[in-house]
Amino acid sequence: MPRSPARSRVQRPRPFEAIFDEAAFAADLDAIATRLRDDPAGLKMAVVQRAKQLLADGRRQAEIWLTEDGEGRACAARLSDLEDGLIRALYEHVGSALYGSDEHSTSEHMAVVATGGYGRGLLAPGSDIDLLFLLPYKQTAWGESVAESILYTLWDIGQKVGHATRSIDECIRQAKADITIRTAVLEARFVCGDRALYDDLVARFDREVVSGTASDYVAAKLAERDERHRRVGASRYLVEPNVKDGKGGLRDLHTLFWIAKYVYRVREPAGLLQQGVFSKAEYATFRRAEDFLWSVRCHLHFLTGRAEERLSFDVQREMALRLGYTEHPGQRDVERFMKHYFLIAKDVGDLTRIVCSQLEENEAKSLPVLNRFVQRLIPRRRRSLGETGDFIVDHNRISIVDDEVFERDPVNLIRLFWLADRHDLAFHPDPMRLITRQLRLVDDALRANEEANRLFRDILVSKNDPETVLRRMDEVGLLGKFVPEFGRIVALMQFSMYHHYTVDEHLIRCIGVLSTIERGTDPSLGLANELFAGIQNRELLYIALFLHDIAKGRAEDHSILGARVARRFCPRLGLTPAETDTVAWLVEHHLTMSTIAQSRDLSDRKTVETFAGVVQSLERLKMLTVLTTADIHAVGPGVWNSWKAQLLRTLYYETEPVLTGGFSEVNRSERVAAAQDLFRAALPEWTSTEIEAYIARHYPHYWLKVDLARKLSHALFVRESEAAGRLPATKFDLAGRPGVVEVTVLAVDHPRLLSVIAGACAAAGANIVDAQIYTTTDGLALDTIAISREFPDETDETRRVGRVCDAIEKALTGDVPLTAAMVRRAAPKTRQKAFDVPPEVTLNNQWSNRFTVIEVTGLDRPGLLHDLTATLSRLNLNIGSAHIVTFGEKVVDVFYVTDLTGAPITSAQRQAAIKRALISVLAPPAGDEGSARTRTM
C-alpha cells in the first residue's frame, strides 16, 4: 500500500487540554450567572453565545492541527473531548446556577452518558451528538429541567443532538428488545453526573443482556451491515464512495468492533490484540485504516461545512490537496489519493475475515460466518480434497491441513483457488488470512511455474464462477502479486464521471459479464449471446477482457501499452503466437467498435468499410462484438442499454458482408424485411394500407437501428399526433430506463432542429444524456432524447418533464424565442466544474465519401450542444447527421457536414476557421465556472 504523504509533525499538549480549558470556561459561565442572575433571558443568551464561540474556536484549532499532523483519529478524539468539556460545564452550570439545591432526593440524580459514535469518544466536525440522560427511577421535574436546559443550549449553538431519557430498568428492557438500542448501550460512555448510575447500567447490561446472546447479536449486526451495503452500494470500489456507510468505510470498522466488544467484552480496540484476535501487524492495520478514514471524514466535514459523508467528484481534488498528495506520471494527485482510499477499504475487508476466523476458532457455540450469507455453523464435517493432501473441505468451505501448506509448495497459493472453483466451494477464512501473511512466497519462480500458470488460466476461463474466484484472489492481494501488471491497477480510480468502479474491479466485473453472456441468461446482452457459441476459442475472450484495461494509470495510451503487456503475458499462460496475436489485437482495439457504433454514421458506406479494414476477419468481428458488450456493461449500472445494443448489432451486420466478400448469413435487405415483418405482426389492429404507408415513411437504416419497442412507440405517437393535428408534438416515458426519462419529438425537419431542441432542454433545466435522431422520407424528424431524472416521485417528475416538453414545443413553433443567454441562465447545476478536459476539434474527409466529419471533444457544460450546432449553422454548414456521445464529464460530438452546395469542406483555410470557431465555443462562457452542460448522447 502506498504510504500517506509525508507531513510535518508538531509537538502539542494532550488533545483536551490543548484545545479547551474547561476550568476557564466554567469560570466564564459562573461570571455570566453572577452578572445576569436577575435576567434569565439574558443569562441564557449569554451562555449560548459563549458556548458557540468556544465550539467554533475549538473546531478551528482542531482543523489546524489536522492539517499539520494528519492524524484523523486524534482530531476526532479532540472534538469529542471538546464536546465532553462543554457538556460537563453546562451540566454544572445548569445544576448549580439554575436548579441548584443543597440536598437532592434519591430520585434527583442523573448521569449524562454519551452513546452512538460520540460514545466511542470520536466525533467528526458535523457528527450528531447522541446523549442518554440516565435516571435511577422515573423522570422527575428536576431531571426534566436539567436535561431540557442542556439540550436547548446545544440546539441553540447549532448542534444536532439525538437524546433519550431513561431509567436503568428501561435501558435494559429496551436493549433486550431492540438491537439498535443494545448497540447504543454497548458503546455508552460516562460524561458527567452520578458515576454510580452509569456503573450500575454497565454491570446489569453485561449480566442481563449480553450474557448468552452473542450469536444473536452478531447475526443481527451482520444482517444490518449487508442491508446498509445494499442501500449505499454493494462494492467497496465505487468511485464516489461513502466514507461512513460505504463498504470498507468507517461503519464496517465500527461493526467489527461492536461484534468483538460484544463477544470478547473488550473496551478498546487494543483489547483485540490482547485477546489474540489480531496479530501486531493486523492491529496496526486496524489503527492505520481507522486513522486514515477519520482523517478523510474530518477533512470532508471541514471542507464542505456540513456532515457530508460522500467523497463526490466535487471534493476529491480539493481533498487530495488537503491530504498532501502529488501527481506522478500517468496518475493525477486525486487518483493517487483515491487509490490509497480504496486500498484502505480493502484492508477493512481483510480485517473482517480475520475477526471471522477468530470467532470460529475461539467460540465453542455456533456463531455466524462473516460473509454476505449470514449462516450458522453446524458441527464440522471435514474431508480431504485434492491429490496433495494439503487441502480439506470444512463445512463446504475449502481450508488447509496446516499453516505450512504454502511454505511447502507455493503453487498451493494458486491451487487453493483452482480447487475452490472446480468443486464450487466457499473459502474458509483461515487460508485467506494466511495468504495475506505469506505473499512474499509469490516470486519470479512461481510466476514462471508452468503448473501455477496452468491453474491460473483454468481459473480465468472457468465455466463456473470465475468472477467470484478472481475477486477473492484480488482481495487477499494474490492476484496483483502473481500478475504484477494487474497489481499496478489494483484500487486505481480514474477521475471521471463515466467510470463507476476502480480499474481492477471493472476488469473482474467484465469477466462476470462474459460468463453471463456465455450462459445466455441475460436477454439484454442481445447479439453477444447469439455470437458466443460460434466463437472458435472462447478462452481468448476471457484473457483479452482480463487484460484490456491493465495498462491504465500510465502516461502512454493504455490500449497500445496493454497490447504489449498481452504479448508478454500470454505466453506465460501457454498461448501460441497466433493466439497471443489475437489477444493483443483485441486489447489494442477494445474501444474501436464502441467508438464507431456510437459516434459514426452507420448508414455511411465508408464507415463500415473503414471498420472492416481494421477488423479484417469475421472471427475477430464476433470476438470484438462480445468483448465490447461486456466492457460497456461492466462500466456501471445503467451504462448498457437497448440503444447501444442495437447500435452494436447494426454495425456488426453492416460489416459482416464486407468481411465475407458480399455473402452474409443474414444480408441487409433480409434484415430490413424481417424487422418490418415483426413490426407488422405487432400491430394487428392497423390495416394493411396504414402499415405499408407508415413503413414507407422510414429509410432502411431506421428499421435496423431502432429496437421493436421504440418502433411501436414511434408509430403510435406519429399516428396520434397527426390525427390531433399537433406538429410539433412531444411525448415522454418515465418507465423506459432507470434514472432517465425518454422524450420523443416529432417536428418538421430543418437544419437548426437539433440546436433548437438542445437549447430548449437547457433553458428548461433538463440534462440530455442520450439521443436517437431520424428523418422520415416525407420531411419529418422523429427524435428520441433521454434526459436525467430529477425526482423519484412520479408526480413531481411528470410535472417537471411536462415543462420540458412545453419548452421544446414553444421553441420549435417560435412562440418563445431561444437565446444563448437564456440557455445558460437556466442551465442545470451539475458537477463537471471539478474536471478538466482539454478542448479538441478535428476535421476529416477520409471517414466519409460525401461529408466532412467534424469531431469535437471537450468538457461538458450547460448549453454546449446548442452552442455547437448554432455555430455550425452560422458557418453556413449543413448537418447531415449528428452523433452525440458523453462519457461522464467528457463529450465527443461528431457532426457530418457539407457546405451549402452539398460538398465536403476541402479548403484548408475554411477548415481552420471552422476549427477556431468551435474551439472558442468549447471555452466556458463568461461567468460560467465550468458546470455541466445539457447533453445528448
From TrEMBL:
It holds the Pfam family GlnD_UR_UTase. The keyword Heme does not apply. Residues 503-624 form the HD domain. Its cofactor is Mg(2+). InterPro entries: ACT-like_dom_sf (IPR045865), ACT_dom (IPR002912), HD/PDEase_dom (IPR003607), HD_domain (IPR006674), NT_sf (IPR043519), PII_UdlTrfase/GS_AdlTrfase (IPR013546), Polymerase_NTP_transf_dom (IPR002934), UTase/UR (IPR010043). Uridylyltransferase (UTase) activity is inhibited by glutamine, while glutamine activates uridylyl-removing (UR) activity. Its EC number is 2.7.7.59, 3.1.4.-. It catalyses: [protein-PII]-uridylyl-L-tyrosine + H2O = [protein-PII]-L-tyrosine + UMP + H(+); [protein-PII]-L-tyrosine + UTP = [protein-PII]-uridylyl-L-tyrosine + diphosphate. One of its GO terms (molecular function) is [protein-PII] uridylyltransferase activity. Residues 742-828, 853-930 form the ACT domain. It comes from the Bacteria. Keywords: Hydrolase, Magnesium, Multifunctional enzyme, Nucleotidyltransferase, Repeat, Transferase. One of its GO terms (biological process) is regulation of nitrogen utilization. Signal peptide: none annotated. Residues 1-384 are annotated as: Uridylyltransferase. Belongs to the GlnD family. Modifies, by uridylylation and deuridylylation, the PII regulatory proteins (GlnB and homologs), in response to the nitrogen status of the cell that GlnD senses through the glutamine level. Under low glutamine levels, catalyzes the conversion of the PII proteins and UTP to PII-UMP and PPi, while under higher glutamine levels, GlnD hydrolyzes PII-UMP to PII and UMP (deuridylylation). Thus, controls uridylylation state and activity of the PII proteins, and plays an important role in the regulation of nitrogen metabolism. Has four distinct domains: an N-terminal nucleotidyltransferase (NT) domain responsible for UTase activity, a central HD domain that encodes UR activity, and two C-terminal ACT domains that seem to have a role in glutamine sensing. NCBIfam families: PRK05092.1, UTase_glnD. This is Bifunctional uridylyltransferase/uridylyl-removing enzyme. It comes from Blastochloris tepida. The lineage of its organism: Bacteria, Pseudomonadati, Pseudomonadota, Alphaproteobacteria, Hyphomicrobiales.
